[in-house]
Amino acid sequence: MHARILRDLRNRTAVAAFEVQRQAYRHITRNEQLPARIRHQAQLALNAFPHQTRPGNVKNRCLETGRGRGVFRDFRLCRYQFRLKALRGELPGVMKSTW
Amino acid sequence: MAATTHVAKARLATLAQLTARLFDNVYNPTGVRTGNKVLRQRLIGPAVSTYYPDWYGKEPRILRKISRAFPELELVNVANEERIDELERRKRRGKGAPKKGEGKRAQLGKKKK
């Protein structure tokens, strides 16, 4: 298996585990009605989270090859694997177009 | 003239306040940011953690479990065996990993002295 898939898996579990906590801190930092000191502390706490827990760290990868670019969201495959599978008839509802 | 507009403004404000209360809206005339936007967002955790199939990244563990449960099958981790074989082949060709102190980095350090 592609090592980058394993890395992404770890990122995903971390993001899911810390999401509620992060959103709570985010709410505090974005709330202008709270004192500036508290908001600043919340921002610092947010910055102190491990990098893995940031949602931007998650990358949709190809399930077959682990490729990170040109991945179709609906099929979770990169464009070449998508083509191969579609031509083999393994993707229901996908047809090569002719006109 | 000025006095009347002032009164009208105040009354309009109370009117807005009342309508907001009646229709369950938030009365926020100065547009202060409350951060409620964050609370309104949907949690992405469930979607994010189900992108890969459940068994992804667990194959060695699953294989170990099965081979422990059924030792008579004599299962082998094919990918791992292949990897070890490849390493051996590389070593025979002299392309294996260098020993400690013989790598590129270490050579650079030696040259400087």
From TrEMBL, chain A:
> Which InterPro entries does the UniProt entry name for this protein?
Ribosomal_uS14, Ribosomal_uS14_CS
Q: Which PANTHER family match?
A: 30S RIBOSOMAL PROTEIN S14 (PTHR19836), SMALL RIBOSOMAL SUBUNIT PROTEIN US14M (PTHR19836:SF19)
| Name assigned to this protein | Glucocorticoid receptor-like (DNA-binding domain)
- List keywords of the entry alphabetically: Ribonucleoprotein, Ribosomal protein
Q: Per the UniProt entry, what are the Gene Ontology biological process annotations, in alphabetical order?
A: translation
Native organism: Thamnocephalis sphaerospora
Would you say which domain of life the source belongs to? Eukaryota
GO cellular component terms attached to this protein's record: mitochondrial small ribosomal subunit
Q: Which family does it belong to?
A: Belongs to the universal ribosomal protein uS14 family.
Q: What is the lineage of its organism?
A: Eukaryota, Fungi, Fungi incertae sedis, Zoopagomycota, Zoopagomycotina
PROSITE patterns cross-referenced by the UniProt entry: RIBOSOMAL_S14
TrEMBL record, chain B:
What are the alphabetically sorted keywords of the record?
Answer: Mitochondrion, Ribonucleoprotein, Ribosomal protein
Q: Where is this region: Disordered?
A: 87-113
The UniProt entry's sequence similarity note says: Belongs to the mitochondrion-specific ribosomal protein mS33 family.
- Please indicate if the UniProt record lists Ribonucleoprotein as a keyword: yes
User: Among the entry's GO cellular component annotations, what is one?
Assistant: ribonucleoprotein complex
The UniProt entry, under InterPro entries, shows: Ribosomal_mS33
- Tell me where it resides: Mitochondrion
Top-level division of the source organism's lineage: Eukaryota
| Name of the molecule in the record | Small ribosomal subunit protein mS33
Query: Where does this protein chiefly localize?
Result: mitochondrion
